[in-house]
Structure formats: structure tokens, C-alpha cells
Amino acid sequence: MDQAWPLVDVIMPTWNNRDYLEPCLRSLFREQEGNQIFRLWIVNNGEPGSCDWANFPGTTILEPGENLGWTRALATAMPFCTAPIVCFMNDDIFIPPSSRGWMNRLLRHFDDERVAGVGPALTERNGPQSIFTQEPDLVDARILIGCCKLLWREALEEVGGVDVSWFTADDLDLSIRLRNAGYTLVVDKRELVYHHGGVTGAKVFGSLYNTDGWRGSINSKWVYDRMVANHGWHKLNELTLPNPPAYVPPLDEHAVMGMGTDMHTDTETPIADAASIAT
Length: 279
What we know:
It is a single chain. By secondary structure, the chain is of the alpha/beta class. It has helices at residues 18-29, 69-77, 102-107, 153-158, 170-180, 199-205, 212-231, 233-238, 274-277, and strands at residues 8-14, 38-44, 59-62, 85-89, 93-94, 115-122, 138-141, 148-152, 184-195. Strand 1, helix 1 (18-29) and strand 2 (38-44) form a beta-alpha-beta unit. The longest helix has 20 residues, at 212-231.
């Protein structure tokens, strides 16, 4: 992989959430000590200026002046990204000291030109990234959960980028689009990242947000109808099949994928004026 800096553009939307954001950033920037591989774009959906304390090296705070939500915040930051890899990350992630070096190790999977996305093991209750499920260390996954995943930027742009029409389940939609385009999604369960989960949703909707009943009643039919309309019911069915297969790297482990950083990054309809929101 090209070693030009940065290798990764991390995009992190946040909404009035310093109690989780600050430990998240401190744990993330342990990765940078003596190993400058990423730069960070914080999209401040909360009070303007409320993230000014986050003056970590290589960090830019984008101030849209309104709560864009998750997908619109990601799309707002994407035109700034020039690294070959982008990382979407929630502000309630925490990387334990024992996982130091996790990003560098996950990046090695992109040496395989089939791979468009990579995710670590997560403290989720279910799914191929859950630390509680019995999959192999390397999983050829059907889904990469949106809270922490690395994506080959060229592949993301090839399949249409971030779809801002989704307010939830955008990770499912993007996983299907990437796999439909012939790419592989890899979960490496040897790398662990903690995810508190549902922190912003609970602030907006209350404590019931994190219950299965709330999420099911609000989201299930809307997500199901959209998934079927966009991809067909058989693709939605694939997401629920048990036991994803193990991921088998190619025989040539040293094959390097060309990932230049001169690709066009503008969207046809900008989500926001870039110059007006960067600090």
C-alpha cells in the first residue's frame, strides 16, 4: 500500500457528546504515537464551538451549524477526504490499550484488491463482528456495522458513496452495494474495539431507544420496505443467514493494490459548502 500520509481519513460525526467523545479521541490518538497514519474530520452536529477543545494533531472540526444526522454528516466530510482509505467511526467508540496498532493491522487486508471494507470485532450482541459469536478469526462478512469500519474510498465512490436518504440501516445498504459490485467485506476478530452503542439515539429518543421493541416498531418495516425496493428480498434474506464463511486471503500475500490519492472527490450536489464549515 502507498505509504503517503494520510493513509486513512477518519470521519466522526458527533452531537453534544463530550463524555464519550473525549475518551474516544484519546484512545484513538494512541494509534498516532510515533505512527502518523490518519487524519480526523469531526463533524460537529451539536452546538457550534462545542468541540473546539478537540485540538489533536491532524484534526479538523467541521461546523455545519445544524444537526445533519449520521449519513449527511458523513457525506459532508467526504469531499475533504483524499486518503485511499476512509474510516467511519461513532463518537462512542473506545479502543483499549491492548488493541494498539489495530488500524495498521486492518489496513493490511486492503493489499487484496477484492477487499472494499474491513471491520474489527465489536462489543455487539450479535452479528459477524460480535465478540460473542463463534465465527473464525477472519470472516467473509455480509455486513460491516457502521460504527467502526474502514473502506477503500475508490470502491465506496464506485457504488455511489454515502446514501443520505437513509437515517438508519445505511450500513446494511452499503454492504449490499459493495458486495453486488463484486467486492469482499472482511471482519478481523483478532482486533477488538469497544462500542457503547445507542448513545446519541438515547439522547434524542429517550432510554427506550435501546430496547428491541422500540427499534423494531420504529425501524423494521421502513428498513425492510426500502431494502426490498432497492435490492430485492433475496438480498435482505442473505443478511440474516447464519455462519458467514471464513475469509481466505489470496495466495500472493504481497500483491499491492494501486490506490492513488488523485481521485475526484466532489459530489454532484454538495451537502454543504466546504469552505463555510471547516474551522
